Amino acid sequence: HKNTGILNLMRQRIVDYIKNMGIPEEEALELRKKYFTDYGLALRGLLKHHDIDPLEYDRQVDGGLPLDDILKPDTELRNMLTSLTSVRKWIFTNAYYPHAERCIKLLGIDDQFEGMTFADYRVPNFDCKPETASYERAMKDAGVSDPKMCYLVDDSAANVDAAKSLGWTAVHVTYDIPSNHGNYQIKSIHDLPKILPELWKETSSPSPSS
């Protein structure tokens, strides 16, 4: 949830990383915003325009976040996922896998997913949401060929719009912010069964990938 403050902490760590490259703070702030807007992730802009080690960046930025002090087990989320048995559950994230693994373990849901599609910092010119290639890679990773069998639940309007344009069922987690993005909008991830109750019904038909 955005109220955890993790996003702001991450943004500040990115700015600090850019400052440590010898770039003044005001310029570092602008570069972080520009690279995120232009490339989906600030890291991709840094890789394109600067000589940096992406894994060292990950250690300093994502890896340096005090997640243990912020994230706690989410029993309601775990129960919701445990009862979601009619679909395959898959993580689709713009994070590198160590950060994603830390998050799901701290939330107590690391045993709820069949697999993960992540932004692979080790790959030159790696793709990420909302690029079409990233969604295609997620489908390939999950072994799904029909986009109509895919659901995306995301708090990024851009990511949700991209999923919907590709034929996925897209759900925008809005945190009370007005939104008309995606097929559905919910204020909290815990509200998902309210808008897609059919997914919580037992089915004998082929399972879609969520």
UniProtKB/TrEMBL annotation:
InterPro entries according to UniProt: HAD-like_sf (IPR036412), HAD-SF_hydro_IA (IPR006439), HAD_sf (IPR023214), Pyr-5-nucltdase (IPR010237), SSM1_domain (IPR052791)
Matching Pfam families: Hydrolase (PF00702)
Signal peptide segment: none
GO biological process, one term: pyrimidine nucleobase metabolic process
GO molecular function, one term: nucleotidase activity
PANTHER family cross-referenced by the UniProt entry: PHOSPHATE METABOLISM PROTEIN 8-RELATED (PTHR47438:SF1)
Protein name: Pyrimidine 5-nucleotidase
Organism: Circinella minor
Source taxonomy: Eukaryota, Fungi, Fungi incertae sedis, Mucoromycota, Mucoromycotina
